UniProtKB/TrEMBL annotation:
Protein name: 5'-3' exonuclease domain-containing protein
Stored InterPro entries: 5-3_exonucl_a-hlix_arch_N, 5-3_exonuclease, 5-3_exonuclease_C_sf, DNA_polI_H3TH, FEN, PIN-like_dom_sf
UniProt-listed GO biological process terms: DNA replication, Okazaki fragment processing
A Pfam match: 5_3_exonuc
Classification via SMART domains: 53EXOc
Sequence ranges assigned to domain 5'-3' exonuclease in this UniProt record: 83-347
GO molecular function, one term: 5'-3' exonuclease activity
Keyword set includes Nuclease: yes
Keywords, alphabetical: Hydrolase, Nuclease
């Protein structure tokens, strides 16, 4: 990341303004024509022989009296200058709606490599075996009716033409495209990603999570973005902190607290309205706006009245219920996984075209074989 300044030992710094402002008067008190609010200087660094050693741009802002001073890099510019590391949440990409589909996986991964990640590092994560056990011990209904990635898709059998199981096919494709694939037994992919995101940020990178899963929104920050597959448009779309605030009018921490209060029907997590009728979304938003987080709200309710009596009674009576929801819905950051240095290397994308072409060819042959078998069965 370049800084506003340079250190050319034994060399010269040549400053060439891109704009040519009106010459500055000798006295700052004299009136003179104002310059543009922002001016940029192109700074060329040369060695002792006069040969150019490169250049960079120095942004200037106008101050009172017309003086031009260096403009500090905005937080957004600093973040953008950091290298990106992508996390690919594999399981959701293997479905079209609720139907398992390797075609869906191939489609979205192809677009992801070609249009989104390019040669940036990518770490793929898959749900481990018995990944829901931790949360289901707290709440048996958690994801009780969620789809499971089949070991072998009924309409896409690979008995004689590939590795056999769909998960293995997916892993093979990713590894041949130089993407490490992580699968931690007893852990959901979300928790593995959340744990590694913290480690990546500590190394000075920024993070992009490729997933349609709303649970990742709690990780969004200036340095963590999400890129989502958009089936209606046939492309991936970036989702940033600005989008989040515009959509929810709150920060990610407050939104997680709201989900804990109202529950998550998709994941089988009941909200407080099921045990305390009358405690709705408006009440929850009002209280969270004042107290900031669920834990702050519960701590306040334990020592004083924080709202109307029905809300006060619900918060004190069902505090453990709400804390359990928080433990279930918040992503874990303590998974036993360590970031490998090689995962941060630029991805070699030279194999992508051949690997994905062979993958789609395999799917086409398999589909043709399936259609023939179906035809023979109907004839019989």
């Amino acid at each position: 990341m370049s800084k506003c300044g340079c250190d050319a030992v034994g060399g010269h710094v040549l400053m060439t303004p891109r704009l040519h402002p009106t010459p500055r008067p000798s006295s700052l008190s004299l009136p003179w024509k104002k310059l543009r609010s922002k001016t940029r200087l192109k700074i060329t660094v040369a060695d002792a022989t006069g040969n150019s050693r490169g250049s960079f741009t120095w942004a200037l802002n106008q101050t009172v009296g017309g003086l031009l001073l260096p403009r500090r890099e905005s937080c957004e510019e600093k973040v953008r200058s950091k290298k990106r590391v992508f996390f690919l949440d594999v399981n959701p990409l293997c479905y079209t709606g609720s139907t398992p589909s390797l075609h869906s996986f191939g489609h979205w991964v192809s677009l992801f490599f070609q249009q989104v990640s390019l040669s940036d590092p990518v770490i793929a994560v898959i749900d481990g075996e018995r990944c829901n056990e931790y949360r289901q011990k707290l709440l048996p209904s958690y994801k009780a009716h969620r789809r499971k990635f089949s070991k072998q898709l009924p309409s896409q059998r690979f008995s004689s033409v590939s590795a056999g199981r769909s998960r293995q096919v997916v892993r093979d494709v990713l590894r041949k495209c130089n993407v490490p694939v992580l699968k931690i037994e007893g852990c959901e992919a979300d928790d593995v990603v959340a744990t590694l995101v913290g480690q990546v940020l500590q190394r000075g990178y920024r993070v992009v999570i490729a997933s349609p899963d709303k649970d990742f929104k709690q990780l969004i920050s200036e340095e963590v973005q999400i890129v989502m597959p958009m089936p209606e448009f046939g492309r991936w779309s970036f989702y940033t902190l600005k989008h989040y605030i515009a959509q929810y009018n709150c920060d990610p921490c407050s939104d997680l607290s709201l989900r804990c209060i109202m529950g998550d029907e998709v994941d089988g997590v009941p909200g407080i309205q099921h045990v305390a009728p009358g405690f709705g979304r408006k009440t929850a938003l009002k209280l969270l706006k004042k107290h900031g987080s669920l834990e702050n709200l519960l701590n306040a309710a334990a020592v004083r009245t924080v709202g109307r009596q029905y809300a006060q009674n619900a918060l004190t009576k069902y505090a453990d219920f709400l804390r359990r929801n928080y433990e279930i819905l918040s992503l874990r950051r303590d998974v036993d996984v360590q970031l490998e240095e090689e995962w941060l290397f630029d991805r070699d994308s030279r194999n992508d075209s051949v690997v994905l072409s062979n993958f789609f060819k395999l799917l086409g042959e398999t589909q043709k074989l399936t259609n023939q078998n179906t035809s023979h069965s109907s004839d019989g």
